[in-house]
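Subject: complex prediction, re-run

Hi both,

The earlier run crashed halfway through, so I resubmitted it with identical inputs.
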Amino acid sequence: MIRCQDAMKRLWEFLDGELPQAEESAVREHLDVCSKCFPEYDFQRTYLAYVRKLGERDEAPPELRRRLFQMLLVQDGSGEGH
Amino acid sequence: MSREAMWARVRMAWDMLAGTRREVAAGRKGDAPPPPVSGEAPALSVAGFQDEAMPWLDAVYRFSLRLTEGDGDAAQDLTQETFLRAHRSWHTFTRGTNAKSWLFTICRNTYLHDRARVGNQRERPLADLDPGTEALVTRSAFGKPAADPEREFFDRLIDDQVVRAIDDLPDEFREVLVLSDLGDLKYAEIAQVLDIPVGTAKSRLFRARRLLQDRLRDFAVEAGYIDSSSSRGRIQG
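This time it finished cleanly. Structure:
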């Protein structure tokens, strides 16, 4: 099994889904049994979920949609983008 | 105007006026954009732009909002300019590739170009960080587990504090963090948007997260939410 230090070095790549399968399995296996690393994993997982949810709260305002639509129609009618 | 083109415009108008959101749910990196409303759209047409670019309007707006440090008017202008430029350059986009990354690239380039034009000197490059901040960024202590439940740290923070902490990050850290953690781009896509090597994108992202977490921890300690001995989030880089 990999050491704590190696698991922690790969933690963000693990959470981001960017590790090759073999390394991902090794980290997962370590986290399953390591009481020292699991809380850090849980913290980072919570952080990512929190920030991603926070990012969802801002939507493009309706007036921007309307204005952009009108401008795109004008631009499209002029033949630009074709 | 052909019947097909007319219906494409009607469909686009309906989507935009109704504020239709066809973005994928957040939290799943690398997802493909949602399927088009109709079948195969004419190549390089407004309908094609609608199906592949417009679903990312909210995502581009959010990215703009963070680039402009929360300035809503500036973010609207930046989003608008991004989509107008994207529409004008639509013929250069390779259909079926990642439209979201492409739009983020245009958005960032537009932002940098405009900022240079108006002589905005807000950028605080890494080299200009004061020693204390640099020490925070590079800190990699791996301390003992905290007694507090993990979620309590975030539950007790106020969203606006977190947004402000993100907006206050130096530009090079803010943009990489926003692209990844709010924009759901993969490392390779971030590297493409920023025109930097993947390894650089990755290490910059990790430093950005450490910096943000340190600042959030400072907020929480100052407010008495957590004990200053709490060591969560200080993983090794």
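Chain A has five helices and no strands.

- K.
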